[in-house]
Amino acid sequence: MFPFQFAGIPTRVVFGEGVLAEVPEELRRFGSKRAFVLSSAGQEDAALGLADRIGDRGCGVFAGAVMHTPTEVTAQALAAFRAAGADCILAIGGGSTVGLGKALALRTGADQLVIPTTYAGSEMTDILGETENGRKTTRRDPAIRPETVIYDVDLTLTLPPQLTVTSALNAIAHGIEALYAPDANPILSLMAGEAMRAFATALPWVTTDPQNREARAQMLYGAWLCSTALGYITMGLHHKLAHVLGGSFGTPHAETHAILIPHVAAFNAEAAAEALAPVASAFGSPGGGLWDFAKACGAPLRLADLGLTRNDIIRAAAIAAESPYANPRPATQAAILSILEAAWEGRRPAGRAAGATMTKDQP
Ligand code: NAD
What we know:
The chain is an alpha/beta fold. The protein has helices spanning 23-30, 44-54, 71-83, 95-108, 161-179, 186-208, 213-230, 237-249, 253-269, 277-283, 288-296, 310-322, 333-345, and strands at 12-16, 35-40, 58-65, 88-93, 111-116, 127-132, 135-140, 148-152. The structure holds nicotinamide-adenine-dinucleotide.
């Protein structure tokens, strides 16, 4: 047994179908009288519906959240928050909206009630990525972590098929990096391992039957588990590469994670076989098996399809190799380049398929 530290999970979680109805009660628990609702433009109707639902306890809606939390959008939202005399943040949406809520919480100290509608998993973490003058920086602070999260399965029924798959792989990537993190602990590993099982079972089901509540519930449960794990661990090579591609080349968040993760997991499988056993058990193997699963579920497979050129890949490998990061297997610039090349071309990484018998040369 390895030594570990675990600070506990401070965020209150309400999970179920129709639990959006609990919002007024959760606001009462905060002692909030003036909640300010956030969403992206695409989910403005959901935000207005929420404002209606809370009636007098609401004081305004800002439906302008966008990807990567640009500080100029935060400044607009902050001005509206202050003008409304708000005392609490009520964010409904994916990681972009959750990010804006965190940015406001950091600047105002207000409590956050977050209602995630994707599987991206920002809601349980103390991490905030912000973009200023085209540069994205990430920080961690306990003040960033939301106080309460409401997971309502019903809200995920409208997630489009492609975002369902890429967002699920985004969550799976968090779980995988949690399993081999230097600060992994047995509780988070149990959670991440259980999430692999939940996604492996439910995602194929949701791909054929998107309105299936039981399968959607399993996926949202997996997302909660992965988000929780992400909130306590040091991220490794996968996050480093996703950050470089998103930050320096503007690739879309969920798709980038979805394409990269089987390749990085295949690379790390050699050094972290024991830690990654739950991934092998769920998908056949962390590399090839996960890639087969992603392909069967209709995930994008090639970085080239995100508009990246071969020169971009070479430059990304150089940027990623510049600064150190935690990873179970040290990666040279050449090793990073070969991971990125395989992901750029959409090659199947090594690793046995689900249900295949293990052979000597197939990890
Ligand atoms: P997103 O929040 O940008 O949402 C993508 C699109 O899907 C938006 O147009 C949104 O309106 C729409 N959408 C969301 N839920 C929907 C639903 N249920 N039905 C229909 N449409 C819906 O994308 P994302 O992948 O959830 O989040 C990505 C962002 O989150 C990135 O900026 C990333 O850096 C951040 N993130 C942060 C952390 C963290 O811990 N800080 C973790 C994960 C992701």
